[in-house]
Amino acid sequence: MMENAGAQKCALILLQDQQLILEAMTYVVDTAIATDNNQYIQNFERPVIPISETQELPQALINYVWRTQKFQVFDDATVQATWVNDPYLKLQQPKSILCTPIIKQSKLIGIIYLENNLTKGAFTSERLQLLEMITTQSAISLENAFLYDTLEHKVEQRTQQLNEKNKTLAHTLEELKRTQTQLIQTEKMSSLGQLVAGIAHEINNPVNFIHGNIKYIQKYSNNLLDIIQVYQENYPEPVDEIIDIIEDVNLDFLVADLPKILNSMQVGVNRIKEIVRIWRNFSRLDESAVKNVDIHEGIDSTLMILESTLKAKSYELEVQVVKNYSQLPKVKCYPGELNQVFMNIISNAIDALQTMRSQKSNYYPQITITTEIEAKNQVRIMIADNGVGMSETVKKQIFDPFYTTKEVGKGTGLGLAISYQIIVEHHGGKLECISTPGKGTEFMISIPL
């Protein structure tokens, strides 16, 4: 437009949301070299500000063209009485001005403002006809640009909405996986707890009966032995029939061995009662709420449950369990859940030791359990083994649900995922893993007191 109109200044004004916006403005930098229309040196700007906020254009004139949708052309703007009080025209004193609307199908799209400060009557009728053709074409181009921009904006909006929905779905899926793992493991541990509690209950009744009667048997046996001794003292020469019975039952041995048998029975019953107590402690079906508990008691209960797996086969060395227990106060926690964590970690350690046994001769399997008080009122439990260890790749995934390095049917990949959730989310603690291939693994559990 500047080239064909011979203008020194041009402004593109667009109508957006019933407001005129200065979209772009162009100047001739040096008119001395503007010898023909193709040699303009121009400075393009993108101010994008409302017309009401600019001092570089005659606002009153532009608003008039907006309202009337009729072009205005001045051969000498300094003598236009209607606009003599316009601040811009009064200050700049431009010579020729052309202000024309951009219209398509009776709809105003924008306004073109052209200005020449050197020549009066710069915008001739021939130039006006040419500018009218260019304006008509620009109306089509601008409308297409608006449509494309609107479509692009809608596509961007829709893409953003889809991305947000995808993120929401991914988060929901992750939550569902975590819930699923928790339900499966909770059901698994609940079934185990019910089984252990059921066995403990069934054993507990007869054991209590035996335990309660052994002391009476001991008392009655001692009384009978006392009577036999008195008889021997008062009747040193028994009849033949009594002599035969004494020889048949080996009375001297019976008298010496019976108290020993009763004592060993008492020890055995006490051991069974201790096992039952530990089983009931592990299951803790009645202790789902937060309680202050002895951490060591929970660890010992777990080791008792796993005792058969710790024992070696005839051709293997038994797993040695080293306990480095510190003096700990009772810890406020979910005891059943914490026992579940101990069970998962120690079971995995036993599996790692068994794998190491098959790979290495003269191997001494060992699990070391250390407890201590950390700074900031934290209890730390460290469970270490000298098993096969893990690579960095495996270590990064061990807390992911359903990830397992075990053979199909031997692991669900849920144990450590649930353990992490129990320690971190339910207890506000930390569960970390340190491992080196061939040198073993250590899990560190930190729980706030």
- Helices, by number, come to 11
Q: Helix/strand-derived class?
A: alpha+beta
CATH superfamily of the domain at 307-449: Histidine kinase-like ATPase, C-terminal domain
Round the mean pLDDT to the nearest integer and report it: 80
> What is the highest CATH level, the class of the domain at 307-449?
Alpha Beta
**Which regions contain 5 or more consecutive residues with pLDDT less than 50?**
31-41
Description:
There is one protein chain. The chain has 449 residues and is of the alpha+beta class. The radius of gyration is 48 Å and the shape is rod-shaped. A hairpin with a 2-residue loop joins strand 6 and strand 7. The longest helix has 110 residues, at 125-234. Strands 1, 2, 3, 4, 5, 6 and 7 form a seven-stranded antiparallel β-sheet that branches. It contains eleven helices and 14 strands. Helices cover 51% and strands 20% of the residues. It has helices at 2-5, 59-68, 87-92, 125-234, 240-249, 251-283, 295-305, 307-310, 335-359, 392-397, 415-426; strands spanning 9-15, 20-28, 42-45, 49-50, 72-74, 96-104, 107-116, 291-293, 320-324, 331-333, 366-374, 378-385, 430-436, 440-448. Among the domains are: 2-123, Beta-Lactamase (2-Layer Sandwich), CATH 3.30.450.340; 307-449, Histidine kinase-like ATPase, C-terminal domain (Heat Shock Protein 90).
